[in-house]
UniProtKB/TrEMBL annotation:
Oxidoreductase keyword on record: yes
Pfam family, one: adh_short
Alphabetical keyword list: NAD, Oxidoreductase
GO molecular function: oxidoreductase activity
Similarity annotation: Belongs to the short-chain dehydrogenases/reductases (SDR) family.
Annotated protein name in UniProt: 3-ketoacyl-ACP reductase
Organism: Mycobacterium asiaticum
Length: 273
């Protein structure tokens, strides 16, 4: 018997990186998965996002773990599109127990200060997209009637302004990730009567394609920002996706049954400096 047998989890940004790691780990422990991803690039975001081939790989890995999975190609910025996709997952797998609002973008190293397309793309994905995810999923948890757990993936930059460089990209990223904390706290209060716990998780830099791409590497090499990468623990420039997944598994599992409305850093001490 798995820890999450007979549960359904919705994960956004599931094509690769942290989202794929969360999806596979939950499937290995018994959950069926609704795997959501835009599978397309976004104007203003200077690196390639996940593809349908990436999402197909997530599907294969979940199925290899013996669980059912519904892939959904949807943009979290588009509420109607997201609701339609999530409903397709519900129609096949049943109502939802777990939500991981993981989809997010960054433009680290873009030093333009007046770039509204970059600012809007980041805020629309990282903040509006998380709100849309709540709207598209929580009614199903309520309808199921046995409570649930929601994890909103923020960032260490959602707890600190360190690393701000005056660019539209960094202003947008920090503002959007701070906004996720506000959503989390409000949702924890709003959904508590339905026994739904809501928490946020705050990774530092994670070794995924969001950071490990030519644009970010080249820009950070040209103009290092030590305040972004510094941590208390030596030798940890980046955490691994599995480190974040381990925290997510605890937050959605029975071991945290009385934990709600809190922000959990997984950042090797970045926000404590």
């Amino acid at each position: 018997m798995g820890e999450f047998d007979n549960t359904v989890a919705v994960i956004t940004g599931a094509a690769r990186g942290q989202g794929r790691s969360h999806a596979v780990a939950l499937a290995e422990r018994g959950a069926d998965i609704v795997a959501v991803d835009i599978c397309a690039d976004i104007n203003g975001i200077p690196y390639a996002l996940g593809t349908e081939a990436d999402l197909d790989k997530t599907v294969r890995l979940v199925e290899a773990a013996g669980r059912r999975v519904v892939p959904v190609v949807a943009d979290v910025r588009d509420l109607a599109q997201l609701e339609t996709g999530v409903q397709a997952g519900i129609d096949e797998l049943g109502d939802i127990d777990i939500v991981i609002a993981n989809a997010g973008v960054v433009a680290m190293g873009d030093d333009e200060s007046h770039s509204e397309p970059v600012f809007n793309a980041i805020v629309d994905t990282n903040l509006n997209g998380v709100w849309h995810t709540l709207l598209a999923t929580v009614p199903s948890i309520i309808r199921k009637g046995r409570g649930g757990s929601v994890v909103l993936v923020s960032s260490s930059q959602g707890l600190t302004g360190r690393g701000g460089d005056g660019s539209a990209a960094m202003f947008a990223y920090a503002a959007s990730k701070h906004g996720v904390v506000g959503l989390m706290r409000s949702a924890a209060n709003a959904y508590a009567p339905h026994k739904i716990r809501v928490n946020s998780i705050h990774p530092g830099g994670v070794a995924t394609p969001m950071i490990i791409n030519d644009f970010v590497i080249n820009r950070m090499t040209e103009k290092p920002n030590r305040a972004v990468s510094q941590t208390l623990l030596p030798g940890v420039p980046l955490v691994e996706a599995q480190d974040v997944t381990d925290a997510v598994l605890w937050l959605v599992g029975p071991g945290s049954r009385y934990v709600t409305g809190v922000s959990i850093p997984v950042d090797a001490g970045h926000v404590a400096m």
